[in-house]
């Protein structure tokens, strides 16, 4: 039975309100409901969002004792700044798909550097919230192959 952890970093709690021209009008709760409804019935999804780096690190470290099939991770601004979260991810060695709602390669140059991409089996950017659905399918396909 696949178990997927969906992690969202800072400011993603503002989805639907923050810069809707970039991120759209769908809220994080709407996304969680949609992803859950479209996931295979035998798949468990757990969602976690934090604006606090230490909380995110502790949630990731908990995977040492409660492993999952994979992680869908939108690190938000931590993508470009958090060596500490990268170290936590690296220590638990999950099957990781990095997701970005916007195409970070069309944005400011600092957004084009990720501390997580080399740890991920895939990076999905610029597909809007569909990127989360693509990430889920990627993890499920990966788990069948391994």
Helix content: 25-40%
> Judging from the principal axes of the Cα atoms, what is the shape?
globular
Unreliable stretches, pLDDT < 50, 5 or more residues? none
Using the CA coordinates, give the radius of gyration: 14 Å
- Structure class: alpha/beta
What is the N-to-C order of secondary-structure elements (H for helix, E for strand)? EHHEHEHEEH
The beta-strand count equals: 5
Beta-strand content? 15-25%
Strand order of the biggest β-sheet: 2-1-3-4-5
Q: Helix count?
A: 5
What is the end-to-end distance?
14 Å
Main sheet properties: 5 strands, parallel
The overall pLDDT, averaged over residues, is: 94
Task: Describe the structure in your own words.
The chain is 34% helix and 18% strand. The protein is α/β, with parallel strands linked by helices and 146 residues long. A five-stranded parallel sheet has the order 2-1-3-4-5, covered by helices on one side. Helix 4 links the parallel strand 3 and strand 4.
Strand and helix map with partners:
Layout: E1 3-8, H1 20-23, H2 28-38, E2 44-49, H3 53-61, E3 70-74, H4 83-92, E4 96-100, E5 122-125, H5 130-145
Parallel strand pairs: 1-2, 1-3, 3-4, 4-5
Give structural attributes.
alpha/beta; 146 residues; globular
């Amino acid at each position: 039975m696949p178990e997927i952890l969906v992690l969202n970093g800072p400011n993603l709690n503002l989805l639907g309100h923050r810069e809707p021209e970039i991120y759209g009008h769908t809220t994080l709760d709407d996304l969680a409901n949609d992803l859950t409804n479209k996931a295979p019935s035998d798949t468990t999804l757990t969602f976690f969002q934090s604006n606090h780096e230490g909380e995110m690190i502790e949630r990731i470290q908990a995977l040492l004792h409660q492993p999952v099939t994979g992680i869908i991770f939108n690190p938000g601004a931590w993508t470009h700044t958090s060596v500490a979260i990268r170290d936590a991810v690296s220590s638990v060695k999950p099957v990781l798909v990095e997701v970005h709602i916007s195409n970070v390669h069309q944005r400011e140059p600092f957004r084009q550097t990720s501390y997580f991409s080399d740890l991920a089996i895939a990076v999905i950017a610029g597909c809007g919230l569909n990127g989360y659905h693509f990430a889920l399918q990627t993890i499920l396909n990966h788990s069948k192959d391994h």
